[in-house]
Amino acid sequence: HRALGFLLLLLAIAAKESAGPVACGLGLAWLLGSGPVSTRTFTRPLGLLVVVIGLGAFLIDSLLIPKLFATKYAYGDLYAPLGTSPLAIALSPFLQPGVFWSRILAWSRVKFFLGSLLPMGFLPLATPTSFVAALPGFLMLFLTNGEHRISLGFHYSIEPMTGLLFALPAALDKSWVQSSAKKILPLFVLASLVSLGRSDVYYWRIYQATAHHVWVRDKLLPHIPEARSVAASYGLVPHLSTRRWVNQLPFFQDEKGSPVDCVLVDESVNNTPLGKAELNFSISSLQQSKYQLELQCGTLLMYARAGGASCLEGAKPICPETP
User: Fold this and answer.
1) Which of 157, 170, 148, 167 is nearest to 115 (CA)?
2) What's the maximum distance between 2 C-alpha atoms anywhere in the chain?
3) In whole angstroms, what is the distance from residue 188 CA to residue 245 CA?
4) What would the mean pLDDT of 58-74 be, rounded to a whole number?
């Protein structure tokens, strides 16, 4: 069973480059003695091995493999100006403490941290040696630029959640938790229920199509040729799925890393994972780059790459909101 478990762990580490740091957190927790007392003669040496394997896998994924393909690591500038290498980021609390702590203690990070722990009744904090397993996952998110990855609805939250789910059984095994189970477990269930997100039915009802949205869907989007590559607000992406390439904001590159032909921004639709400030920053970045405003209708802005083909085919649709 141990051999099979270790094999599955290796396969998990190989699945994604961010799995390496997550494994380092798990290994560090084992190394500090988070396993049951009867297993520590095995889990402590295993923890050291897992830390080494996790770190090695991350370095191979982020440094060696990009060099083999004559490219750079896609997320290499995500932590600027803290640094682009693991060593620079590790030393940033000492070399750039102002930037480091301003990101760690930003309100968006505090909300994410509390929101992560609330469904578990904050119980993982009862076992510091096990809670360590979640720290690399939190740091990977909290040290990034901007806010758009700091969302519990975004898939990146799985990285710290792995460590928290590791710590939760250890917390439930604490003697004081078990002796107070009749008080703690109802509160735990209540915390889980309070943390349930809004259902799909809620979103079906809250995101009602306005006359503007109907015009965009029925009159504008059909005029965008299928040969165009497009970046668009999240809520528009499904309606553009037949184009050659489509991605959500703030990603402005196609599958080859080249700038997309067209960009559609509409603040009246769902712009996950961007907040209003980041959406405005994306718009200002477009205006300063090699894109030209081709059409504006109410809250919708359509930009075409300078020197490229028009984003519209056929007769230009008439905006009903034009004064």
Assistant:
1) 157
2) 76
3) 45
4) 84
